[in-house]
Amino acid sequence: MSQPAGTPLIIQSDASLLADVHDPGFEEARAELAGFAELEKSPEHMHTYRLTPLSLWNAASAGMDAVGILTVLELYGRFPVPDNVRFFVEDTISRFGKIRLLETDDDLRLFLDVPEEAIRQELFTNKRVSGYLTPHELEDRAGFLVELYDRGTIKQELIQIGYPVKDEAPLVDGAPLAVGLRERTANGQAAFTVRDYQSEAARSFYGTGRPGTGYGTVVLPCGAGKTIVGMKVMEIVGANTLILTTNVAAVHQWVDELLDKTDLTEDDIGEYSGDRKVIRPVTVATYQILVWRKDREQEFPHFRLFTERKWGLIIYDEVHLLPAPVFRVTAEIQAVRRLGLTATLVREDGRETDVFSLVGPKRYDVPWKELEQKGWIAEANCYEIRIDLPDSMRIEYATADKRGKFRIASENPRKLEITRQIIDNHREDSIMVIGQYLSQLNALAEALEAPLITGKTPNPERERIYAAFRRGEVHVIVVSKVANFAIDLPDASVAIQVSGTFGSRQEEAQRLGRILRPKRKNSYFYSIISRYTTEESFAANRQKFLTEQGYRYHIELWDTHG
């Protein structure tokens, strides 16, 4: 590694890393840290990262070792790396691969290879895991037998006590299905090529094709073509594929992309949703239908989809939104190749370790700014506009509870005036106004004379509005959080966020992603925030993900009294 431009890092004994934004080596250091540290805070002058077991295990799964990580810290650190941090990195990294799952001659059991006797004793006396383990020796190895159906559960449990399992048991091939990518789109009007980073992501996921590869998560920015990565993986795997995504609009988007860019036909592709339930060699389903059941006492009837065909690949689109019940069935199908696609591994429920152990570790990641600099996604300008609450609402705000305060601030009526001003400033752009509360969105849509899309909008009507927006027939649309995920609106260049879900970083990332598709013009992302309210603190949390990726918010105070 060459000598860095500066030394922006202050490495503290609590495993936090302070990065000086003004140091000439900051940009280099941030790019390096993205591979093995998590961003916690990112104010103007000093960003705070943290080394965690999960961040280090993701790094290890991507091929990084303790020597490489410590070299980065030493090169960019202003002071020596504390001894306890050095030990933490070395010890944590060493745990990855220390326990392995291997095949046996018994089709119903796997072997948990645990070479160290001390660890074997620790596991066998641990109440969380001992019930899944039967002491056993395989050739010259010592460890435990594990029932095949406990393959996912034991990985879940072991990571909770600090032992990530390297799963090297074989995966099934599934029923074969040749999938070819076109050189031109279906209508023949446009050439189609897989970008270098998309091919690299697919290859990183598939690996050698041998045990220990073929499962994991690919992290790419919104607009970077995660669907293309999924299709490239389908081509490599060549098997029946189940694709799980967030809503019916996303299902139709996947189907359209598959028909446009692969040689699959309509007879090859099935839709499994609330509207239709057709199972074919490639089936695209919604998470919602999978977790539907009559009541909380009943089983999930649609989980049978996972066993309806001999799937060779399951793609979890927007894997950071994977519903908790689906983790259960994901634990039971560990022999199937599993690809997670996401723009952020942040889960608001804190179940990142389940994604790691059940879907798989991060196999590929590329920073937003890197793709922006290469022209693969649009350059984004982020603005936070702060306005005052009207005097008439201040007493109501002061006496409300926490949730009430947030809603009052979010529905500040002055946001309509600001939204109008922004729209006037972008007369040549396609604009999305995005919000959380239906009463606010209804009022905005009526005042702006713009079409409104919410969860209650029928799917045909949604798609009609989206199509009109893409064609430029509609200049402004108002959308609820249904548009956060997996909606392809390539001509949107301005997003105006009038309200959001408390401090959701994943939501901020997805909303910015709506406008990052590559285009000839820059993109603009506006968040309108009520000043001196709880909305300010929640907005600060939402910004974390974007500042981690290198985006800066410009904060402006707008006068709404004139």
Can you walk through the features of this model?
This protein starts with 8 loop residues before the first strand and ends in a 5-residue tail after the last strand. It has 21 helices and 23 strands. The protein is of the alpha/beta class and 562 residues long. Strands 12-13-11-14-15-10-16 form a 7-stranded parallel sheet, with helices on both faces. It has a 7-stranded parallel sheet with strand order 19-20-18-21-22-17-23, with helices on both faces. A 5-stranded mixed sheet has the order 7-8-6-5-9, with helices on one face.
In short:
The chain is 36% helix and 20% strand. By secondary structure, it is an alpha/beta fold.
Any idea how many domains? 4
Which class best fits the helix and strand makeup?
Answer: alpha/beta
**What is the average per-residue confidence, as pLDDT, rounded to a whole number?**
87
What is the correct CATH architecture of the largest domain?
A: 3-Layer(aba) Sandwich
CATH top level class name of the largest domain? Alpha Beta
Count of DSSP-assigned helices? 21
For CATH, the homologous superfamily of the largest domain is named as P-loop containing nucleotide triphosphate hydrolases
**Main β-sheet description:** 7 strands, parallel
